[in-house]
Amino acid sequence: MRHKYYNQALKAFLIGIDAADPVSAVRQELIGYDEVPTIIAVGKAAVKMTIAAVDVLKDYSEVIVVTNPENAVEMPGIKVFAAAHPIPDQIGLMAGAAVIAALQRASKVCRPILCLISGGGSALLPAPPEGISLSEKIELNSVLLSAGAEIKTMNLIRQQVSLLKGGGFLQYATPSPVKSLILSDVVEDDLRVVSSGLTTSPIGSREEARVALKCLGVWDRIPGSIQSLLQRADLAFESSKAKNTLIGSNKLSFEAMSAHFEWSSVHYTPLVGDVAVAAERVASSGRGTHLFGGETTVKINGTGKGGRNQELALRVALLAREQAWKAPWLYLQGGTDGRDGPTDAAGGVVCETTLDTLESQGINSDVMLSNNDSYNALKAASALLITGPTGTNVADLGILIKG
């Protein structure tokens, strides 16, 4: 039987997802756009954004879509690449080459370029410089993920090891005019961070990337070819300027939830940084309904299966017991893309019975957390949040209902 607060919490979460619907947002932005562009769509919402764009425009030169397999669908006359996320793969490498070729074709005749960007593009579109292999990029990505690097730091580094990121996309587009519609999956909506800033200026320099890697304590763990690249001087180049427009974000979804649940306590400071610290913040909330947004990080020490949202939910359940919360209560924490880490779950839904259910099966939650195995812990307690792919991506949302 479902918890008495489950439907209320799930409704709030789905309202947040609906507010980030890329179809209506793209339609609205393209009213009056009368160019015949090359369309490049990259990210977890790429398919939905493309559907809206081709429906509104009717006429276009060519279209390339790069998204994750869960959101990929066949589209007549359109090249769709189902690339891996969060670890890049060979399909993503092929997609990067296809995007560069399409940009070069457009730039030769100064054809307008419409870029549709959503979260996830950093992994979906690897385009390593000469001398760096895909396997070395995969190794770099794995090191950054295991170190619990925040998304801005990760993308600062990724930009330096890509031909397309950090504005590299614009080098190939010059002199074509570029219009970019961006669905943000990062807190504070720094567009340089979304998909590693394909159509923006870079976050920082190679020197800053070196410093970040050393601060994370992983400089000696990255491939030598990448170390060598980051020790060279930055490149200077002239490129087209893009007209970048934000069409959806975690903040807008968060505000939609709060507008619907007028009686709720709205936590405007986002949940960011280490997941354990974020759990303490959630657990410090008093009675009532509480809404959270943001995106946390997890430092991987174990070999288990899970994601930041699942781990956050399980940690809140442990703190609730430690603080002796009175029943009933429920906490839902999920990623708006419907996928948390390398799992089929969006996150977790925990309540006053979750830990009891685990203990009845001989499962120790602390041990599971120490092995980063939140997925299997929540699965055993029937506490996974399963939504399937949502076709959008604006970071994470959380709802605490504390009776």
Describe the protein:
This protein is α/β, with parallel strands linked by helices and 403 residues long. α12 (275-283) links the parallel β8 and β9. The protein has 16 helices and 13 strands. The chain has two domains: 6-15 and 251-402, MOFRL domain (glycerate kinase, domain 1, 3-Layer(aba) Sandwich), CATH 3.40.1480; 22-248, 3-Layer(aba) Sandwich (Rossmann fold). The radius of gyration is 21 Å and the shape is globular. The mean pLDDT is 95. It has helices spanning 6-18, 22-29, 46-57, 90-108, 121-124, 134-146, 151-159, 168-173, 206-215, 224-230, 250-260, 275-283, 308-322, 354-360, 365-370, 374-380, and strands spanning 38-42, 63-67, 79-82, 113-117, 178-183, 242-248, 265-266, 271-274, 288-297, 329-335, 347-351, 384-385, 396-402. α1 (6-18) crosses α11 and α2 (22-29) packs parallel to α3. Strands 7, 8, 9, 10, 11, 12 and 13 form a seven-stranded mixed β-sheet that branches. Strands 3-2-1-4-5-6 form a six-stranded parallel β-sheet, sandwiched between helices. The longest helix is centred in the N-terminal third of the chain and has 19 residues, at 90-108.
Task: Explain briefly what this protein structure is.
39% of the residues lie in helices and 17% in strands.
